[in-house]
């Protein structure tokens, strides 16, 4: 690792000699592949403590060659970003340059701390989602600072100059989610704006149901975790079971749900994983039920220039995310949308200012892609805020209660780098998560789900919520008992239960009061939810 770290500091050997830098120059020149790979192979043999199988050795040679090229690319892009400002104005490119060159305003650079592991400019190789045999994508990303630190410290940002900083008011109920690295804001709560009791009681009448559906061969339909080639088929199977005409009453499950909803709220939300899935799902439903052609709307991104207006009918166009409120007063009754696109920011109301959508179907279990590094970034930033001023933590690591500033800095950076590498290597498969990571993951998904349901309970309106993906409770559909380590629904109950158990001493009275106020209706619905064989309830 030390050899690679030395190489990464100077991948072209501009300041000192390094065997990998010499090979990198040959890689760029691309004059003799065989000679280059022979040299890389010789270098690998010199570093190896044991004999490597020929196939494995050949694979390692290709990996090292690719790593050399990426290191050079990273170094040149870093130089380009560093020097871009010198030509931006002269070439009259201000405001027109690619997102690649965007950075926080210079005025903020002095008050936003760098990323805890050091500002990162790196690449991620992502395998092709449609065909594992196809070449993947090389994604570029930067971690440039901890913006949340500035938000939390605005009142004190000018303390060194003897000035009082701006007073700051943070307003968000779901930003208190103590286990979530993505949503939780590490600030003391000073007040709660409570909804009227009658609205809370109405919301607590919401009904949650785990309702797995089965294909023609009576196999439970599982979408989350399915292979890229099987996932679209599974989604179509699920939509088929929801939208097809019944054998006896000739009414689909969706129509039955709609007809049970109160007048003014007879609209249904179908939640999928992405805008692309929303589009393909809408196309399939319109194909299956042509008479619904103008009744099915799918959400599209705000910047979709080809679907810039809401248009139904034979064109089958979508509704921009920023215009989603129009669905509440339009004639269509099915909205298909990505889960994260409707979690906050938009109310969908009818003419009586009630939630227009009365029911939601979670067709997929919310889960980040295995190659999504957002969790690692959120988690390392939360780690930094938890540890940067924790003197007890430094004392334990350094075995002294009076560490020097240099010791503190070195300990923090080294620990952050180790934590960053651990997070990048973390398996984001739900069943494989360690208890601590599963707890954090559950809190994040709990907030995501509750924010979506928030669209359905505006004005004190109860909602019907159906969890259809078999991945929500995989053991239940197999005829056994689920637990927090297998079922997200069981885990959501588990992480909330201590706050609603008066005898549980694992949480503080303050936290218990907060959770009961913010997530009480959610917990009530989860505890009453049918369909999940939860071992913790038996």
Shape: globular
Q: Write the CATH fold name of the domain at 208-369 and 433-533.
A: Rossmann fold
CATH superfamily heading of the domain at 208-369 and 433-533: P-loop containing nucleotide triphosphate hydrolases
Q: Give the terminus-to-terminus CA distance.
A: 50 Å
Structural class: alpha/beta
User: What portion of residues belong to β-strands?
Assistant: 5-15%
Helix content: 40-55%
Secondary structure tally: strands: 9
Low-pLDDT stretches: 306-315
Q: From the alpha carbons, calculate the radius of gyration and give it in angstroms.
A: 27 Å
User: Biggest sheet, strands in spatial order?
Assistant: 3-9-8-4-7-5-6
Instruction: State mean pLDDT (0 to 100 scale).
Output: 87
Number of helices in the DSSP assignment:
17
Kindly provide the name of the CATH class of the domain at 208-369 and 433-533.
Alpha Beta
SSE pattern:
HHHHHEEHHEHHEHEEEEHHHHEHHH
| Oligomerization state | single chain
């Amino acid at each position: 690792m030390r050899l690679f770290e030395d190489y990464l500091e100077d991948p072209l050997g501009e300041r000192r000699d390094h065997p990998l830098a010499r090979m990198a120059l040959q890689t760029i020149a691309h004059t003799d592949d065989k000679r280059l790979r022979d040299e890389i192979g010789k270098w690998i043999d010199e570093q190896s403590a044991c004999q490597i199988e020929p196939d494995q050795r050949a694979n390692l040679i290709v990996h090292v060659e690719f790593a050399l090229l990426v290191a050079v690319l990273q170094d040149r892009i870093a130089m380009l970003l560093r020097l871009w400002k010198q030509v931006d104005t002269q070439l009259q490119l201000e405001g027109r340059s690619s997102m690649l060159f965007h950075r926080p305003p210079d005025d903020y650079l002095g008050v936003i701390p760098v990323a805890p592991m050091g500002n990162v400019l790196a690449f991620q190789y992502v395998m092709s989602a449609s065909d594992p045999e196809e070449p993947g994508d090389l994604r570029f990303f930067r971690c440039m600072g901890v913006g949340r630190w500035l938000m939390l410290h605005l009142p004190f940002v000018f303390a060194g100059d003897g000035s009082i900083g701006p007073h700051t008011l943070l307003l968000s109920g779901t930003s208190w989610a103590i286990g979530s690295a993505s949503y939780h804001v590490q600030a003391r709560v000073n007040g709660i704006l409570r909804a009227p009791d009658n609205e809370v009681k109405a919301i607590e009448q919401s009904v949650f149901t785990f309702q797995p559906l089965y294909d023609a061969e009576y196999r439970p339909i599982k979408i989350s975790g399915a292979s890229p080639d099987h996932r679209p088929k599974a989604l179509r199977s699920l939509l088929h079971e929801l939208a097809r005409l019944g054998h006896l009453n000739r009414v689909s499950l969706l129509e039955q749900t709609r007809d049970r909803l109160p007048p003014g709220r007879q609209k249904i939300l179908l939640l999928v994983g992405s805008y692309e899935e929303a589009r393909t799902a809408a196309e399939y439903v319109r194909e299956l039920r042509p008479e619904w052609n103008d009744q099915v709307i799918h959400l599209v991104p705000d910047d979709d220039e080809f679907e810039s207006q809401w248009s139904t009918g034979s064109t089958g166009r979508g509704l921009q995310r920023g215009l989603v409120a129009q669905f509440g007063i339009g004639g269509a009754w099915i909205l298909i949308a990505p889960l994260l696109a409707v979690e906050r920011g938009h109310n969908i109301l009818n003419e009586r200012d009630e939630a227009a959508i009365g029911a939601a179907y979670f067709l997929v279990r919310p889960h980040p892609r295995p190659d999504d590094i957002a969790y690692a970034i959120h988690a390392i930033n939360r780690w930094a805020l938890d540890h940067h001023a924790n003197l007890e933590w430094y004392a334990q690591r350094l075995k002294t209660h009076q560490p020097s500033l240099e010791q503190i800095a070195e300990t923090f950076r080294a620990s952050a780098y180790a934590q960053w590498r651990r997070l990048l290597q973390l398996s984001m498969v739900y069943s494989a998560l360690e208890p601590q990571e599963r707890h954090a993951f559950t809190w994040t998904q709990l907030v995501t789900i509750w924010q979506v349901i928030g669209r359905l309970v505006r004005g004190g309106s109860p909602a019907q919520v159906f969890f259809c993906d078999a991945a929500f409770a995989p053991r239940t559909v197999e005829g056994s008992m689920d637990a927090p380590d297998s079922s997200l629904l069981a885990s959501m109950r588990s992480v909330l239960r201590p706050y609603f158990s008066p005898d549980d001493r694992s949480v503080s009275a303050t936290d218990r009061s907060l959770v009961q106020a913010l997530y009480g209706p959610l917990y009530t619905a989860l505890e009453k939810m049918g369909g999940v064989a939860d071992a913790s309830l038996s």
